[in-house]
Design a protein that fits this description.
- By secondary structure, the protein is mainly α.
- 73% of the residues lie in helices and 1% in strands.
- It has a two-stranded antiparallel sheet with strand order 1-2.
- A hairpin with a 2-residue loop joins strand 1 and strand 2.
- Helix 3 runs antiparallel to helix 16, helix 6 runs antiparallel to helix 7 and helix 7 packs antiparallel against helix 8.
- The radius of gyration is 20 Å and the shape is globular.
- The N terminus is likely disordered.
Length: 351
Amino acid sequence: MGSSPSTPTIFIMNSSLFEKYLKDNIFSTNIEFCSYYKEIENDDINRYLYTPLLHHASNGGKRHRPLACILACLAVGGDPNNAKGVAYAIEHFHTAALLHDDIEDNAKTRRNKPCFHVVDGVPLAINAGDYSLTITSSTIIDDPHLTDTQKVFCVSEVSKMSRATIEGQALDIGWSRDERYDLTIQDYVLMARLKTAYYSGAVPLALGAYVGGGTHEQIEAFRTYGLDCGLAFQIQDDLLNLVGEKESKDKDFRLDITEGKRTLIVLHALSCATDEDKAELLKILKAHTDDEALLARAVDIMQRCGSIDFARQYAINLSEKSINLIKSTIPDSKYRKILLSMASYFVQRIS
């Protein structure tokens, strides 16, 4: 029998501090980040690379990665200018990852706009992603605010981050190709940590603390905090795709079911469902259907198994776990308060 839904604990940390921080700084961050994609005198190069890449980069979401990096620098008493090169390098990697992911997933839209490869074709989208990967390292190397020692350390960290992300993506794509559902929650956690948590939380925070002059203990505390928050961020993304409010109006709503994604919610449901429900859920996942009634039926099975609430509580527990670690290693300040609110922001956001 499937387990009965549980009621998630109340996550009491105020997420509005981090949300306000993002809103207050996104405009200037977008201007600075997009300045890396300057058009040049050659019209054809602009047409086939810089102009569409600038258009794509300007649709960049909330920029929480670079802003979290800068915030960690401030939290250890550092100069925020020292963190900007590293912060934008990680965002360049994110841009490349999205360009390539959209091709690999055959996605049609990204943040309610057509994907780069839909508008300009797959070859140019791959090339634009390659360019963004190239300037990931050069953005750090060319940063006048960093010493040579700092540059070597940061490039090494970003290289390890890139490898982890690609390893996680390999698992995600490979499981899909081979129609693997013989997976555990631990398998999902490994994949999501590699694919998302390192570059969405751990490395931005750790490097922000590093270039801000933080101690080894502070850097590693931020790394742990970022890993947990980054995983919670991915789980919340999975939840929003199934039961989100804003997403219900978007074309990508419940696309994870259509693509047969091995999310924490799906794997929990498969481990808890009755034989009949398990067989029906697998049939829907393997059909790659976009029939709304079948998608709703799959969600209903997951809800009856308690899998939606399980995933939500799992994300909450992750976000709560490392808060005391930050409190014990990072001095109290307005920046620490904002960073601590990031954990709840990741699990309370509705879009």
